[in-house]
What we know:
The N and C termini lie far apart (41 Å). Strands 3-2-1-4-5-6-7 form a seven-stranded parallel β-sheet, sandwiched between helices. The chain is built from eight helices and seven strands, in the order E-H-E-H-E-H-E-H-E-H-E-H-H-H-E. The chain is 44% helix and 15% strand. It has one domain: 3-Layer(aba) Sandwich (Rossmann fold). It is α/β, with parallel strands linked by helices and 266 residues long. Strand 2, helix 2 and strand 3 form a beta-alpha-beta unit. It is globular and about 50 Å long. GO terms for molecular function: oxidoreductase activity. Keywords: NADP, Oxidoreductase.
Amino acid sequence: MVTYFKDGCVVITGAASGIGRETARVFARDGCIRLFLGDLSIDGLSETKNWILSEHPTANIEVAVVNIADEEAVEKFVQGAVTAFGHIDFAVNAAGFAHKAASVVDLSDGDWEKSYKVNLRGTFLCERALLRQMIRQKPLPGYECRASIVNITSLCATISIPGLTAYSASKGGVLGMSKTDALDYGPDKIRINCIAPGTIETPMSLNSLGADYLKANAKLTPLNRNGQPEDVANAVAWLSSPHAGFITGITLPVDGGLNLYTGPPV
Ligand SMILES: NC(=O)c1ccc[n+]([C@@H]2O[C@H](COP(=O)([O-])OP(=O)(O)OC[C@H]3O[C@@H](n4cnc5c(N)ncnc54)[C@H](O)[C@@H]3O)[C@@H](O)[C@H]2O)c1
């Protein structure tokens, strides 16, 4: 059994659903029994908590409603984690919003604004609040680095999916921000990396792209299927762990090879 995260505390946003929820479960599976989970949905957070507790009854799980687009709420959320557990060793910024695919002439101001406010500004607010705390901490016993942050960007940050203009712009921003912050905080021994999921079967992809798109996409993917939340969660856990202790500033695609595909539809 892997126990990478023993004695550590993880903070995860977007933990009420999909990738964030599965990431919480995988951290608990790999030995992290202090989890501070945030999302807009208290019902979803409670489901995540009960699910993890059914597998790991000794886990200490706190859940908190947070809108990551709200600066005050984010500060309170991060402070809540510190009050609960005293330190934040790992953080995963998975909360995100995807608008329905539409060509740019039909893209609403609302979808543009929300993509920016949640995906880019929200991730920035979380990262800033986390770094202000992490920089004051000591590394966990046996760890070289003080802390790790993994931001969930998207394959859309580097290649294109039709109709996701605002989403792609916001996720490209997350990628640029993460690289700069990795450079700035490397000397402080805080690692910051991104995961770029391809198409992962979650409520978000179903709502944004639709079932037909997902079916066709699976065929285009070299590994011949769409991703599952666990595919991403396993990569997040590895990137957060000491096995990736000399890695910072990267963007790891978790996409079954989809970023390689340049041919016609099959
Ligand atoms: N599913 C995919 O194909 C895919 C691909 C690439 C990247 N991603 C990214 O992965 C992350 C997780 O997405 P998912 O597919 O698990 O979607 P999901 O819809 O299952 O989960 C997203 C969660 O984020 C929460 N959230 C949304 N806005 C929020 C806000 N303002 N404050 C706090 N929480 C908020 C939602 O309530 C939800 O629980 C997102 O950042 C998404 O952009 C997903």
